[in-house]
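User: My notes are a mess, but here's the protein and adenosine-5'-diphosphate's SMILES. Can you give me a structure?
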Amino acid sequence: MGATGSILQLCNLTRRVGEGTPARAIVDDVSYSFDSGRLYSIIGPSGAGKSSLLRLLNRLDESTNGYVKFEGSDTREFSPCELRQRVGYLFQTPHLFDRTVRDNIVYAQPDLSESKINRLIQQVQLPSGIVDAPVDNLSVGERQRVALARLLATQPEVALLDEPTAALDPANTEAIERLIGSVVKDCGVTVIIVSHSPQQVVRLGGEAILMVEGKLIEHGDALQLVKNPGTPQGRRYMNGELQ
Ligand SMILES: Nc1ncnc2c1ncn2[C@@H]1O[C@H](COP(=O)(O)OP(=O)(O)O)[C@@H](O)[C@H]1O
Ligand SMILES: [Mg+2]
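Assistant: No problem, the inputs look usable. Here's the predicted complex:
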């Protein structure tokens, strides 16, 4: 982990849905290369195809044209199970099952040792005593941390995060943003996060990618892209003209 170089390559990636001829492209001919161990934010108006793009990266959905390579191999060559362990996914609202924190964390890694469970709980900044609590008793911010700990338990090389702070208050949002930063810096995980907020993208730093109507419009340094977009759509989005 943490090696430099391309980890995910998107080549003419397209997903068409619906009955039209041609069917509507919700992800439209996107080519891009994500480097290992870096942080990327995908930003754009609602309905731009950000979640749809993210879901193609670990085959939660399939492309209708183009492909994704993970570490040089077409993602269709991996078993979905292996791919989703190595390219993990965190949903907007925590998807946990109705058991304890421990049960959720060990779900994909039944052999996880007690010390690793405790380390994960520490890493996501939950109190150690919480491990045997039913997740039902937790706040949404705590539940999202449990979901993050479960994702980290499989030691993914890439973490795909779809608006992970959308349901959180500002304090929990800030805490999750710090955690995301440390996952990249300390664990060398490549993080690709969909964000609803240009301010968040600036706080996170790293690279930013702007999508509008299924297309990758521009990309670059996060602060630069938000403060000084290089395209008419970028300027319209940052001015609040594209929602
Ligand atoms: N399975 C699907 N079938 C048809 N349309 C879809 C499907 N999934 C997403 N869409 C549409 O594709 C567009 C992009 O959706 P989405 O990726 O969720 O956007 P974003 O995450 O940027 O808000 C939207 O217009 C949405 O309604
Ligand atoms: Mg979305």
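Strands lie at 6-17, 24-35, 39-43, 65-70, 73-74, 87-90, 158-162, 190-194, 207-212, 215-221.
User: Great, I'll file this with my notes.
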